[in-house]
Amino acid sequence: MQYTTQMDAARKGIITGEMKAAAKKEQMDVHELMALMAKGLAIIPCNKRHTSLEPNAIGSMLRTKINVNLGISRDCKDMDMEIEKVNNAVKMGAESIMDLSSYGDTRTFRRRLTTECPAIIGTVPIYDAVVYYHKPLKEITSQQWLDIVRMHAEDGVDFMTIHCGINKETAGRFKRNKRLTNIVSRGGSIIFAWMEMTGQENPFYEHYDEILDICREYDITMSLGDACRPGCIQDASDISQIEELITLGELTKRAWEKDVQVMVEGPGHMPLDQIAANMKIQQTLCQGAPFYVLGPLVTDIAPGYDHITAAIGGAIAATYGASFLCYVTPAEHLRLPNLDDVKEGIIASRIAAHAADIAKGVKGAADWDNKMSAARKRLDWEEMFRLCLDPEKARRYRAEAKPEKEDTCSMCGNFCAVKNMNRILEGEIVNIYDE
């Protein structure tokens, strides 16, 4: 092979099969995509061992992609149920699945994903280390943390969230500047606790070059984890979050020096009026590396409806530069999501992503809406069902309140503006009450 990673290939002017496939989906010239990848502005996460992958590119000038978090936990051990969620997520348009398993035979589940699933697969090795070694946190050694990273690489995952931005200096500043909700990142809290108990530097930061060597070998995308992401709107844009982002910007440059693809993870919870500025800060500090955001959730008061709070924030974030939205389900903060929760979360995220794509002028994004509008004008219900995000729900809603006349709905009936405008413009008489 004449190249090591997709970024290396792009810098050498080599067009890969993955680039061709991704460019076709984006309706763009492959040379344009290659130029973006050479600069680190777009990525194609694609481990050389993930043979079932259908490649997708991620970048702020491309279609906004969504990620779905799933996995096995102590309270929900059914692997087949999680696989069903994965398959449903892919059918509903999710480009990425992130395996957050934290219990049981995590490796078997992970290998099933990279063997069977066409979506991008991501993991968080720090979770798996705790499960794999099955011993007290403080007894895990720096080398053992790194060994888990290599294991995930060998298993074929396309990107890994590595919490390397929180080091001893950042941790010290965090303790001096109190937060309302402390550290809410699971991986961030684990590595912070390990550092506190052992007195050692974060091994993912200290041995960053070794991790990059692993990523380069397998062509794994580094997802630079935001251990200090805000967990409530009060903590948004504080010292801990911004200082970690500065470190992630430095680590981005070091990854690019080794031709390793990078995306940067971002906030959590954030008021509406701070989102655009945060996107700009990230683009500046991380030189345009794709930004991967969880939401952001724009209010803290909506458990049970956090797919909505996240979709509001996600649409704004993607409009102003985020490339990749991590879905949030109605179960966020409450429980592991079930099949219905996963569906609701995906639909909400896809709406947010598509709304942002229209706003930023992504090629072809508004065509879908124009086709839907044309079908509505014709009162072509079958075409409307075909074009909508959730045809099953749309059909069910119409069937549950079947109108007296098929060319209307039960909301307007003879008062239907679309029907009456079509008729009057064709020279017909419109009586409404007499019909």
From TrEMBL:
Residue positions binding substrate: N69, M98, Y127, H163, S185, R186, G187, D226, A227, C228, R229, E265, Y292
Residues binding Zn(2+): H269, H333
Source taxonomy: Bacteria, Bacillati, Bacillota, Clostridia, Lachnospirales
Annotated [4Fe-4S] cluster binding sites: C409, C412, C416
Pathway: Cofactor biosynthesis; thiamine diphosphate biosynthesis
Pfam families reported in the protein's UniProt record: ThiC_Rad_SAM (PF01964)
Protein function: Catalyzes the synthesis of the hydroxymethylpyrimidine phosphate (HMP-P) moiety of thiamine from aminoimidazole ribotide (AIR) in a radical S-adenosyl-L-methionine (SAM)-dependent reaction.
Cofactor note: Binds 1 [4Fe-4S] cluster per subunit. The cluster is coordinated with 3 cysteines and an exchangeable S-adenosyl-L-methionine.
Reactions catalysed: 5-amino-1-(5-phospho-beta-D-ribosyl)imidazole + S-adenosyl-L-methionine = 4-amino-2-methyl-5-(phosphooxymethyl)pyrimidine + CO + 5'-deoxyadenosine + formate + L-methionine + 3 H(+)
Family: Belongs to the ThiC family.
Name of the protein in question: Phosphomethylpyrimidine synthase
Organism: Blautia hominis
Requisite cofactors: [4Fe-4S] cluster
NCBIfam families documented for this protein: PRK13352.1, thiC
Enzyme Commission number(s): 4.1.99.17
Top-level taxon in the UniProt lineage: Bacteria
Keywords annotated in UniProt: 4Fe-4S, Iron, Iron-sulfur, Lyase, Metal-binding, S-adenosyl-L-methionine, Thiamine biosynthesis, Zinc
